[in-house]
């Protein structure tokens, strides 16, 4: 059955919601002209720190047709991960980012996107395309913004008026022509809550983050010793950091996720500072088998805990 680009777009969005995605939007695949000079400037200022991979595939990062030849559309999806139950985040508690409470989102999003892609091929016809969940040089937030799913806030995270910023993003880039959605307005206004709250001054100006100063970078991406200049500024975060999101007024509208895989593991719920300080290889391997935390390995967690240990107590 032949359908037009609008009907096909609606069909895809309906299926995306059926699969559990909170939002789905579509943009036209093409060169990201505005982002090219911004990205180049950001890289030239070494804001990517030791994340050398961010400078790789510059052309592909800006042009999805170099990732999927003949690409016509970018289908962007958002999946809420805001937890119903949160770990203690007092002044003395060791903290991990809420996105790491449950199962690694790469697995969860990929499975849902595969189901969506299979649906497109079955219902609309054979489509050439690829699924992306942090698996290639794709500018997720830019495409989500172009697809009308929200706007990129001053902390550089995507913000949605209805539910804030605690979302995972993913895409299907394909050769199917689809009705595109337009971008939404920026609703940050004069607010500077995220900039004011960042203890390492990583948000160097509105909408620009020096990644090499971010607590998430220190605790996850950086493989060597954390710089001494960060001493006393980590606010006890040992994996990731949610400060700029937690203080954002739009996250007053965050709702608990509906994806059981993202729920706080019961074994993790009762973790104390001592548990983090004394964790063994066996416990680490078992507890974080399918968790984002395994990225740092046990050595990384120990390094992070030891770096901030004097600031904590049980």
From TrEMBL:
The keyword Cell cycle does not apply. Its main location: cytoplasm. Its cofactor is cob(II)alamin; [4Fe-4S] cluster. Cob(II)alamin binds at residues 61, 134, 158, 169, 216, 241-242. Binds 2 [4Fe-4S] clusters per monomer. It is found in: Cytoplasm. InterPro entries: 4Fe4S_Fe-S-bd, 4Fe4S_Fe_S_CS, QueG, QueG_DUF1730. One of its GO terms (cellular component) is cytoplasm. Pathway: tRNA modification; tRNA-queuosine biosynthesis. It is an enzyme of class 1 (oxidoreductase). The active site is at 134 (proton donor). [4Fe-4S] cluster 1 binds at residues 188, 191, 194, 248. Its EC number is 1.17.99.6. One of its GO terms (biological process) is tRNA queuosine(34) biosynthetic process. It catalyses: epoxyqueuosine(34) in tRNA + AH2 = queuosine(34) in tRNA + A + H2O. TRNA binds at residue 223. Keywords: 4Fe-4S, Cobalamin, Cobalt, Cytoplasm, Iron, Iron-sulfur, Metal-binding, Oxidoreductase, Queuosine biosynthesis, tRNA processing. Monomer. Catalyzes the conversion of epoxyqueuosine (oQ) to queuosine (Q), which is a hypermodified base found in the wobble positions of tRNA(Asp), tRNA(Asn), tRNA(His) and tRNA(Tyr). Belongs to the QueG family. This is Epoxyqueuosine reductase. It comes from Arcticibacterium luteifluviistationis. The gene is queG.
């Amino acid at each position: 059955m032949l359908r037009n680009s609008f009907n096909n777009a609606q069909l895809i969005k309906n299926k995306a919601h059926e699969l559990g995605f909170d939002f789905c939007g579509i943009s036209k695949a093409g060169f990201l002209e505005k982002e090219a000079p911004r990205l180049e400037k950001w890289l030239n200022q070494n804001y990517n720190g030791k994340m050398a991979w961010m400078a790789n595939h510059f052309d592909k990062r800006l042009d999805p047709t170099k990732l999927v030849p003949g690409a016509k559309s970018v289908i962007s999806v958002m999946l809420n991960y805001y937890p119903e139950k949160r770990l203690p985040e007092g002044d003395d508690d060791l903290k991990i980012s809420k996105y790491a409470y449950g199962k690694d989102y790469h697995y969860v999003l990929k499975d849902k996107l595969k189901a969506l892609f299979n649906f497109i091929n079955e219902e609309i016809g054979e489509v050439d395309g690829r699924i992306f969940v942090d698996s290639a040089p794709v500018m997720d937030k830019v495409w989500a913004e172009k697809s009308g799913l929200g706007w990129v806030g001053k902390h550089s995270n995507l913000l949605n008026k209805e539910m804030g910023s605690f979302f995972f993003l993913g895409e299907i880039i394909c050769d199917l022509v689809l009705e595109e959605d337009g971008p939404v307005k920026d609703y940050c206004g004069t607010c500077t809550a995220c900039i004011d709250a960042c203890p390492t001054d990583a948000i160097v100006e509105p909408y620009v983050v020096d990644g090499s100063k971010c607590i998430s970078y220190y605790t996850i991406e950086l493989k060597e010793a954390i710089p001494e200049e960060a001493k006393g500024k980590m606010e006890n975060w040992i994996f990731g950091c949610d400060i700029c999101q937690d203080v954002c007024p739009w996250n007053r509208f965050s709702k608990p996720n509906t994806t059981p895989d993202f729920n706080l593991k019961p074994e993790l719920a009762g973790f104390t500072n001592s548990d983090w300080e004394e964790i063994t290889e066996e416990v680490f391997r078992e507890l974080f088998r399918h968790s984002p935390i395994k990225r740092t390995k046990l050595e990384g967690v120990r390094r992070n805990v030891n770096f901030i240990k004097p600031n904590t107590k049980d």
